């Protein structure tokens, strides 16, 4: 599988736009193409054109969770598909279009998606597990054997009329099996990257060979990063597994430096325009 980053927080190229958000273009070995997340706005489309990627040629699209920095570009994607005469299914988790905010119950700002988009016929709402066929599986997990990032504490959902801690039931990840290799693709890993890896390995019945994911070790709203000791502990656990790691976006460069100290060449940070094979 080849991964191209269409949107991320940073880029070394003056020809590409960077935004706080994520969009990935996945090219599978059998020729299928998957758009994974759409960034916060339409800028991922301009980046795609510059990089020679036609996102309307996707066989399917996946929205990892219901936050604007991953799905704010969904209306622009629909418009592009309409203009190209293409109808691409977009797979979303239940609860993706419900209200999500960042901050505290007393002081917060909206980070969710436009609820009206849920009615679009191209939106396919799925549950905890969805087999997409030919080695692609969407899944969610509620297991919390390993800790989640502390920055989750600022993220809330509206439930029964009140703002309460987000359970991240709107989050899903993609497990890719190609030629006996297993790759996990995740957006922000709000459920905890180790929990997602454990679930993916249970589904695969084998250890993961590669992980392409944000680890949510920074909180842009609160202006904080994960505790260095906890990040080093995570790095040691990741190093104990056999996978290689591609990361970006909510991992943050400060945390990446600590991960790199432990993992060396097994971890790489991707920017807008980066391409990598896994």
Describe the structure.
This protein is of the alpha/beta class and 278 residues long. It is built from six helices and 20 strands. The chain has helices at residues 43-50, 68-71, 74-84, 193-204, 228-239, 253-263; strands spanning 2-7, 23-27, 33-36, 60-62, 90-93, 100-103, 108-110, 123-126, 129-133, 136-139, 155-159, 162-165, 173-178, 181-186, 210-213, 218-219, 224-225, 244-247, 267-269, 275-277. The strands form four sheets. Strands 8-5-4-3-2-1-20 form a seven-stranded mixed sheet. Strands 9-10-13-14-15-18-19 form a seven-stranded mixed sheet, covered by helices on one side. The radius of gyration is 17 Å and the shape is globular.
| Major sheet description | 7 strands, mixed
Strand proportion: 25-35%
Q: How does the overall form come out from the CA principal axes?
A: globular
Structure summary, number of beta strands: 20
Mean pLDDT: 96
Which parts are unreliable, with pLDDT below 50 for 5 consecutive residues or more?
A: none
The H/E string reads EEEHEHHEEEEEEEEEEHEEEHEHEE
- Across the major sheet, the strand order is 8-5-4-3-2-1-20
Q: Helical amount among residues, as a percent range?
A: 10-25%
Put simply, the count of helices is 6
Instruction: Give the oligomer, counting copies of the same chain as homo and different chains as hetero.
Output: single chain
Rg value = 17 Å
The rounded distance between the terminal residues' Cα atoms is 6 Å
- Please identify the structural class as seen in this structure: alpha/beta
